[in-house]
Protein: tripeptidyl-peptidase II
Amino acid sequence: MLFVSVFLSFIGVATASRFAQNLVLHEKMDAIPEGFVQNGPAAESTTLNLRINLASTDITGLQEALFAVSTPHSARYGQHLTKEEVEAFVAPKSETIQVIKSFLRANGLTSKTISPAGDWLRVLMSVSKANELFGAQFSVFTNQASGQQTIRTMQYSIPTSLKGHVELIHPTVTFPTTFGQPRFTSPGIQVPLKDIFLVGNVVPASCATSVTPACLQALYGIPTARATQHSNTLGVSGFTGQFAQSADLQTFLRAQRPDLVNTTFALQTLDGGVNTQGAGSAGIEANLDIQYTVGVASGVPTTFISVGNDFQDGALDGFLDIINFLLAEAAPPQVLTTSYGQNENTISRALANQLCNAYMQLGARGTSILFSSGDGGVAGSQSESCTAFLPTFPSGCPFVTSVGATTGIGPETAASFTSGGFSNFFARPSYQSAVVSSFLTRLGSTNSGKFNTSGRGFPDVSAQGENIVIVNAGKTGSVSGTSCASPVFASVVSLLNDQLIAAGKSPLGFLNPFLYSAAGIGALTDITTGNNPGCNTNGFAAGIGWDPVTGLGTPNFPKLLTAVVSLGSCISRQLPTSPFLIQRS
Structure:
């Protein structure tokens, strides 16, 4: 019996050894993220809801197509791709699908497709099965601040047979993150209407301490006339149980935009999302975003997109779900503004890359995607403890437009809380190469070693973000944060789109190649003072030209309109039906 026992043990070790040799390390977290503690192994019988991201057919081709339709003076500028054209780039090859299906079938597993292009699958399996198949050690981790427990692994591998077919498995090494919220000061001041009526574009002195839609119209030349194009829509992302209140919106409009009273917003929901009404359900972020889209983008049809907690994308908290939701639509909004984000180091590089690719897909469809840059200066998203600068995500994604914050009116200066810097995941895109190189030359050795000099720089632009007057739960007060700036700039883009569409031209779509062009830079007001301290430093300083505090500057609507009408392409023009017929540049 001893001989048999030893022999069986040898066989078991040999089998395990052969299995281990068939695995290759795919992702690894070097240390437990700050704020989490490990409690021990997860129960083997616990069911994991895993998502598998499959390699796309031609993601490089999609990127080339995106830049072709988004770069001024390109022969295909404005000829945004159809849903089918984007999906043809993104869909996995038949070989990849066959390999994955065979792998799952051999292990008694089934999958469900959870993305329009079929590049994301959902698979249920036990902890013990996941540990076995992926060489992982799923454990229980606790968020020390919230007490919330989650199951993650510090690393995982994939079988060599899946290499080249699987981009990542999630949620594995990415931990849940806590979103920052704008701070509401209430009861705030009630700004009398007589103080905000304008004479021409003169900015009232009250705007130095209380920013209203009228202040923004004066500062940026934003028109008050109602938009006319009903096909032009503006989407507002809603997360974390934030509900936009119709009553608060009407109170806000009666005080700040009486000409827009009774204007409302549409609602879309996903992941079990709702939009509960009542003072007890008022959400500061949701109210802010709706009041400064409906109240600034006069007459543009606005939709609040409420993401519930039944996430299909795991630890992404609906960030990928909302993009897949919009990609599945025949006509997604022309502009999407989101005032949420996280530190880049809280998400795995592979997962960040795939979410960024999802933004690329929506941008290719003709949607301008804007994100607030964060509120922790160079310390990231409302973070204090750091030695190296912490970039935020998704602001570091090169396919979104990141919006920083300014303050004051005479002239505007950078808001000190504005997050800005350089991505550690994404390389500097060509559209900003010249201006970022100029900034780094001016910077010299300041803060040397604290940031990635070859990374994608952000923010791209900025707008007012301090002392913004809103109504929340029936009370008038003020909020501050880059959360304020993103809906403002999004409103500007929506009003530009309204006039472009009225002229028979395409909406702007992915903004950055235009913004960084000579025409785009010339239509923005450069902000040259202020900085964004953090990590026991003064951070970066705003100056002449682009900087990682206020980007290229704040909008000048009349100049932007002049610039974009000369570039717009006819809406009716389309790219070839097959993306493979597009000539690569």
Summary: The chain has two domains: 21-56+91-170, 200-568.
